[in-house]
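Q: Here's a chain of 412 amino acids. Please give me its 3D structure as C-alpha cells.
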Amino acid sequence: MGPRTEFYEIAVRSGFYGLDQSSLQGKKDNVRKFWEDMSIKLWLRPLIEERLARRPRLRVVDLGCGSGEGLELLSHIPVRSHADHADRDFLVDAEAIEYAGVDLSPAMVEQGRRNYAGRPNVRFVQADLSAGFPLAGEPPFDLYFSSYGSLSHLTAAALTELMVQLFKHAGDDALIVLDLLGRYSPEWPCHWPGSNREMLPYNMAYLLPAAERTPDRIEWFRNTFWSADELEALVRGAAVRARRRAEVAVLADRSIFVGRHIETGLFGAPAVPLRYQVNRLLDHGYRGQLEHLRVNLSPLAEHAATYPRVWQALNRHAAQWNSVIELVAALMVQRDDEVRRLIEMTPAPLSDDMKMLAWLCRNGERFPVADVWASVIGPQVAMVLRGLELGQEEALGCGHALFAVVRVKTAE
C-alpha cells in the first residue's frame, strides 16, 4: 500500500494551499492595516483608557458599520505597556464591547450578522442615518463611532441633524468619532473650491486593478468633503442646538500623501505610486523604490495663492517626508557627509528618528534576515513617515480623511 494522502486532499479542498495574497494593494492593504487603522487606534487609546478606568465594559454604536469592521478595530487597540498588562495584548476584549452596528445596506447588515453569529453582545440594525439616529430610544452609548468616510455619504444638513440627535442622546463624557473625506487632499484638487453645502463626485476605483479603471467599470456617486473649519462649525452648532457642550479632543489629517486616490489620477491630480511604495516598505518581502517615494507638489502650485494655508501645510509636510527619503538614499550609498548634513539641519524629534535609521543601516549585519532592507529598514522608514503625519500640529482637511473625536459635555 502506498502513502496515504487523503488528509492533504482535505487541506487542499479547504483552501489551505492556495497562493498567499500580498498586501500591496486591495481593500486591506498594508497602509490600511499598519498606517490608517493604527493611527485611529493611537488617537483613540488614551480616550478609551479613560472610559475603561470608570467602567470595564464599553457600549458602542458604529454608524455606517459595513459588516462590523469597527468592532475588529476597537477590539484590537494595543495596550500601552506590557509591563502593566503582561496577560493581554489589547486594551479591551471584543466580549467586553456591547456593539450595535448601523448600516443602510441590507447586504452589509446580513454579512455582519453572519460574521458575528452566536455573539450575544453584537447586533446589527439596517437603517438610513440620513433619516436620523435609529437607536434614540435606547440608553446612551459610551462611543458613537464612525470610520473610513462612512458619514461623508450624508449631506451636510443630514449630518448636522444626526449630530444634534447624538448630542442629545449621549451621556456626559461620551465620545463621538467622525472620519470624513478631507476637502484639501492632494488627491483631488478639483474639489478644493467646493464647500460642504454640495455633494461632489467620488468613486472607489482604487479597489480595481489599474488596467480595469475604465469608464464602464467605475461607479461614481456623491459624497461630502470637509475642511477643518467646516467640521468645527458643524460640531459647535449641533452642540448649541442640543444644549450640550462639545470638546474637540482630536482633530487630525489622515493619509495626507498615501490616500486611496493618490495613484488613480481621477480627480485632477497626476497619479503617483506613493501608497503602493509605502505598501512595499511595510511588506517584509519587498524593497521600496526610493525614486518613487519622493513627494512632488509642483502640479498643485497653481492653487498656492488661493489656498495659502493649505499650500504651506502640504509643503512643510512634503519637506519633512522628502528629507527622510533623501537620508535613506544617502545611507544606501554610504554618503556619510550628506547623512550628517541632513541630520544636523533637521530639528527633533525627526532628527532622532533619522539617527535611528542611520544606526539600522550601518548595523544591518546584526539582523539574521535574508534582506535587511525589506525586513528591517523599510518598515522602519514607513513608521517614521507615519510618525510625521501623526505629529502634524494643525489639521486643515489636507488628508484623504479628516478625523475628529468629540467629547460630549453638559452645557455650562
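Q: Can you summarize the key feature?
A: DSSP finds eleven helices and ten strands in the chain.
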